[in-house]
């Protein structure tokens, strides 16, 4: 039997002697595989449902918001909030969100990258350090409202002499704490992707650990770290809940036209809080205004994400 | 040097019947009389070296002396601890959590593991070439210049880069494209670049961990060729899986093997250490004989 193969239905093929049509029939099979098609259709439906919800949502926003943007033009972006729907704009929200982003950038990125470098490059593989890493991952999953309360206690109350209380600085620091675990995790992953052979090469020519990290590991991990940082900022720009606790005002209480520096030292608002505030207004005209503000926020978000993708594609390294 | 020239210069290894228990080899030009080889001074004196990882013994009873300006080959089957021993010589094992080294390992009379020795200073004098070519993902020039720069080299960097690449037999192939990325070179060129990077910091010893394992035969010959030239300036310790390579290039050979304990735990150790000619033509231990004649391994 050693050189014979059973082709099914009792046909035993002997190499060189079996007629080709017998082999072909055996290879083609007979059954129409129903299960395969059913599974394929079910999976397609799940995709359709997920995409469908998104399309309806975006379509609704577009139908309501686009006319407002068309009618108001850039005026919508450059005017401040108002109780009159036809006068209200998102200027304060844009400025506030940008200020928050800058503060997140200044605090969360260096702290997060530094922590990741320590965990990946210096920390030994001890039980304590494994516990630390696990908890950083847990922190990333903590609901952001909890960080809002933390920010209220620490930045607004305890550090009031430094932050000035309910200011954009408190808000930015709170957001920085929200995204810090994400920065640590994405940076850690970027560092871990740098092959050990690069580190060994550095040590092999007599470099110290810091020289190896600064000259070789960090530059190699930089694209991954940048991508992570940008996605982090995208997350920060959409956060609303914690800001409600640390001073982002619900639109109407925001100061009239205090400008960039005025907001930095006093009351502020952000795009998402402005959207939240407008959506709760009884005047139906504000619904369309909300939709228009959502489009502005989405545009900012998509720009940030696109930048991350472009960066990643350009600098992605193959090892 | 053209590729055909390489072929003609290649050391020839004639296959022999294993029962003849020897590999016939012709070493071109570098054959030195035994008295000269015995007369050299020690670079490393290793005595009863023992290495364990996380409490598990990996290597034990390693005693051998490495002689100045000679090529010492460490051979043996996989898992016998050759690389582990090699990585002790420049304290590369320090980078592995839980690695522990016991016994004496003297470098020019100084114990490398005594208190106060800075592994960074050790590695500046004892360079390393790795199994897989690992150029930095930077330009060819930057690859060479990195080591001297961090060591505080004050001279003309361009000259040093040229000299290092020339010594590594790579200059003619890369002189027009020093600014291109090192990762664009072929595997064999990358490995010679790594050797150039190593000698740019002007070390005393070069450790090579299976430097030809990922290279084709032609690239391998070029590296071996290079080692012949380098050994007049440097002491070379090479780990190799390739017995013919050890026979072709080395002055001395240490044969490692794995000892299996009663509980199944495997520990590497040195069976025999001698002049390469003796190991391959007249081994004292039957295990060495079995290995070099191809009956095992």
What would you note in describing this structure?
The complex is a heterodimer of chains A (319) and B (297). Chain A has 319 residues and is mainly alpha-helical. Chain A folds into two domains: 1-30, no CATH class; 76-315, MetI-like (MetI-like fold), CATH 1.10.3720. Chain A has helices spanning 20-28, 34-72, 75-78, 91-122, 127-140, 144-158, 160-163, 168-192, 196-204, 209-238, 241-245, 259-265, 271-279, 285-315; strands at 5-6, 12-13. A two-stranded antiparallel ribbon of chain A has the order 1-2. In chain A, a hairpin with a 5-residue loop joins strand 1 and strand 2. Chain B has 297 residues and is of the alpha/beta class. Chain B has one domain: P-loop containing nucleotide triphosphate hydrolases (Rossmann fold), CATH 3.40.50.300. In chain B, strands 8-9-10-5-11-12 form a six-stranded mixed sheet, sandwiched between helices. In chain B, strands 4-3-6-7 form a four-stranded antiparallel sheet, covered by helices on one side. In chain B, strands 1-2 form a two-stranded antiparallel sheet. In chain B, strand 9, helix 9 (217-230) and strand 10 form a beta-alpha-beta unit. Chain B is globular. Residues 1-26 of chain B have low confidence and may be disordered. The interface between A and B is medium-sized, with 21 and 27 residues.
